[in-house]
Amino acid sequence: MAAAVAAERGLAMATCTAPVNIAVIKYWGKRDTDLILPINSSLSVTLHQDQLKTTTTAAASRDFTEDRLWLNGKEADVGHPRVQACLREVRRLARKRRGGGEDTAALSLSYKIHIASENNFPTAAGLASSAAGYACLVSALARLYGLEEELSEVARRGSGSACRSMFGGFVQWQRGERPDGTDSLALQVAPETHWPELHVLVLVVSGEKKPVASTVGMQTSVETSPLLKHRAEVVVPERLAQMVRHIRDRDFEGFGQLAMRDSNQFHATCLDTFPPIFYLTDLSHHIIALAHRYNAHHGHTKVAYTFDAGPNAVIFALADTVAEFVEVVRRSFPPATNGDQFVRGLPVGSAALSQELVAAVVTEPVPGAVQYILHTKPGPGPQLVDDPSQHLLGADGLPRSRA
Ligand code: DP6
Fold this sequence. Notes:
By secondary structure, this protein is of the alpha+beta class. It folds into 2 domains: about 1-190, Ribosomal Protein S5, domain 2 (2-Layer Sandwich), CATH 3.30.230.10; about 200-375, Alpha-Beta Plaits, CATH 3.30.70.890. Helices cover about 35% and strands about 20% of the residues. It has 10 helices and 17 strands. The protein has helices at about 1-10, 80-95, 130-145, 150-160, 215-225, 225-250, 250-270, 280-300, 320-330, 355-360; strands spanning about 10-20, 20-25, 30, 35-40, 40-45, 55-60, 70, 75, 110-120, 170-175, 185-190, 200-205, 305, 315-320, 345, 370-375, 385. A 6-stranded mixed beta sheet has the order 8-7-9-6-1-17. Strand 13 (about 305) and strand 14 (about 315-320) form a beta hairpin. Helix 2 runs parallel beside helix 3 (about 130-145) and helix 6 packs antiparallel against helix 7. The relative contact order is 0.17. The site of ligand DP6 has 15 residues, from helix 5. GO terms for molecular function: ATP binding; diphosphomevalonate decarboxylase activity. Its EC number is 4.1.1.33. Pfam families: MDD_C, MVD-like_N. Belongs to the diphosphomevalonate decarboxylase family. It catalyses: (R)-5-diphosphomevalonate + ATP = isopentenyl diphosphate + ADP + phosphate + CO2.
């Protein structure tokens, strides 16, 4: 194996990429903050890595004197408890696999490691970078140590939502019952090829960092919100089963309605938190109202929104709706300067809007409010990068200078 061969020279390296995911049944609240065990199951759509991905290289060498970590080219704290938890768990599994003894052909577990990680999108854009980041870290470490088992349980220790980024397509994180978390895992509900007509538009409205980090916010919600308790105990179990059915049936009406309702209930629990947490802005509310006007005009659910712990909207639509809705967004939030960069990612065709549609849906345009639209679709889980020229670390184990 690559790692074993390289180990003879004292240096081994592995590079992986991992995706972002967007929840349609939200995770919000932990029953165990150390093990990152949730109070409810959740379900997400993995987004395509052609548009949004993290790349991570992990290297181990007998010449390294300390563990080191670089995020987007800058050295970061490798001692971060969540990074350490992932490292410890991967090494524990590698040791277990080797049956306690040091396999001479395998990479030594006592070597220090260097890790470099980069996103192909702005970290602060609020696009769930921690999920892709930890899924990628765990995937790269697993490759380095030659682990082949399913590792969503380890990714979960980095960030709860990261366990769902360990699979492509439609992914459920089952809350589990055991106190040690061994049954709190991600499972694929359907692969990304299951529903090819389903497309995703990310409306990036703000580059600002979110006001309250989700880790802190959700704990305050657990402590103070009776609505969250009701949601976790009663609402989510029903919704999760429904959502799985809608996905299996490729039922956009059902899928979209439930995604919107669940996003709204998550933000209602934020408002029910004391003191309240506000992730949605006036602009988010504007987009929500726009989606409802658009659906009402067509007489059924053509687009569905969902919002995480930030103001960016993620819109689901079937392929035949994308061009028209993008034009509606362009008319509702006329781009200020960079009109040519307004739509990014997958190509979007042109659409002419009828006067009735414009009159019914495009009310009071807000120029410049949406920075850009990223057009993407469901995609696969973490990938191994075979090409050594793509490693983020050089032969000296330090980050390669970026062009
Ligand atoms: C609103 O996974 O970021 O995006 O487990 O504390 O790292 P930690 O939280 P995190 O929370 C994500 C919350 C959410 C909903 C979701 O992705 O399900």
